[in-house]
């Protein structure tokens, strides 16, 4: 005997089961209906339960588009670096797995650096670092006026917000002219009639010469003839490759018969570590791949230190000063059997 269910409403308790020859009541058909409902529910029950992923945790300087609260298994997210940061290594893609966990990404975002600032003639500058959002404050010595921005900032593209300022000598306007008087401007020596009727001693005019200029270590001059030079004559200096000129490019024969202050050629520095990763000019290097192993006087690089309390890494800057590059005390050189993933440069940054 075959039958069908007519007038069935899932929310209603009343229904009629009609057979071909007999009419059954709900009470007589309850077991069959229960079996039918169980089969229908089985069709909509998933075979396996898949967990969803929450928001992925992002490392220092990382970003992603379209951040959601929940992701389904199989969803793919592409990581990127924020403005002011540069990608250094690793895959940018992570995937939500069926277990509700994200696959790991080795992408690292390092803070961008700006060029090292040149010294300010007749002034001073104060700064701690030259990475993104760092600032330099400029001041001039007494008798000089600052022309340009007193503070510049390292921008997200590795450029300074303004060109470095200059310090120009203070100048005075015209002095007040006394009544019935006049002002004479010159630099000549003058004699005068004293109260006793005598003239002051006349000035002595003599030929001013400077001795032949001398060489500088690790540098050269633009002249080759060793002779005496006259008043106001000049000589220019330069440095050999890898050395940096510290001081004026040009010296002058002064009225006293002496030369103005000579420059010096500053020595480059070697990075005195055997293992680990460094940050230089916005890029990271394993020290074994940093060739040639040297940076110029005045340049800055960073090594990575570990914050053991927070279990995160952070970069610490150090500057080359005339052949001396001091490695920060917080840096711990790993053993010769170190694991890359555990180094301060490879873990999450503080």
From TrEMBL:
Domain Sushi: 51-111, 112-169, 208-267
Record's GO cellular component terms: extracellular region
Coiled coil: none
MF annotations from Gene Ontology: heparin binding
Top-rank taxon, per record: Eukaryota
UniProt function note: Binds to various kinds of negatively charged substances such as heparin, phospholipids, and dextran sulfate. May prevent activation of the intrinsic blood coagulation cascade by binding to phospholipids on the surface of damaged cells.
This protein's name: Beta-2-glycoprotein 1
Gene: APOH
């Amino acid at each position: 005997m075959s039958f069908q269910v007519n007038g069935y409403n899932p929310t209603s308790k009343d229904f009629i089961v009609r057979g071909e020859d007999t009419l059954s009541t709900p009470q007589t058909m309850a077991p069959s209906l229960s079996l039918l409902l169980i089969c229908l529910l089985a069709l909509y029950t998933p075979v396996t339960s898949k967990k969803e992923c929450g928001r992925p945790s992002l490392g220092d300087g990382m970003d992603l588009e379209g951040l959601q609260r929940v992701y389904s298994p199989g969803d793919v997210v592409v990581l990127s670096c924020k403005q002011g940061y540069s990608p250094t290594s690793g895959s940018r893609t992570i995937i939500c797995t069926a277990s509700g966990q994200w696959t790991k990404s080795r992408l690292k975002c390092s803070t961008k650096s700006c060029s090292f600032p040149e010294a300010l003639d007749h002034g001073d500058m104060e700064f701690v670092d030259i990475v993104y959002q760092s600032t330099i404050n400029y001041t001039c010595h007494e008798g000089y006026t600052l022309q340009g921005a007193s503070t510049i900032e390292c921008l997200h593209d590795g450029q300074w917000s303004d060109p470095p300022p200059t310090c120009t000598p203070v100048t005075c306007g015209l002095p007040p002219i006394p009544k019935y008087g006049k002002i004479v401007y010159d630099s000549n020596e003058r004699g005068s009639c004293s109260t006793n009727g005598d003239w002051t001693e006349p000035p002595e005019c003599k030929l001013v010469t400077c001795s032949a200029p001398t060489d500088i270590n690790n540098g050269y001059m633009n002249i080759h003839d060793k002779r005496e030079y006259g008043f106001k004559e000049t000589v220019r200096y330069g440095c050999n490759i890898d050395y940096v000129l510290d001081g004026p490019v040009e010296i002058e024969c002064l009225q006293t018969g002496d030369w103005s202050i000579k420059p010096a050629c500053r020595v480059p520095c070697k990075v005195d570590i055997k293992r680990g990763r460094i940050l230089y000019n916005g890029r990271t290097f394993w020290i074994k791949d940093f060739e040639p192993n040297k940076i110029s006087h005045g340049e800055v690089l960073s090594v990575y230190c570990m914050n053991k309390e927070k279990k995160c890494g952070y970069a610490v800057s150090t500057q080359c000063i005339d052949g001396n590059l001091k490695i920060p005390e917080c840096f711990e050189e790993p053993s010769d059997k170190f694991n890359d993933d555990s180094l301060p440069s490879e873990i999450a940054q503080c």
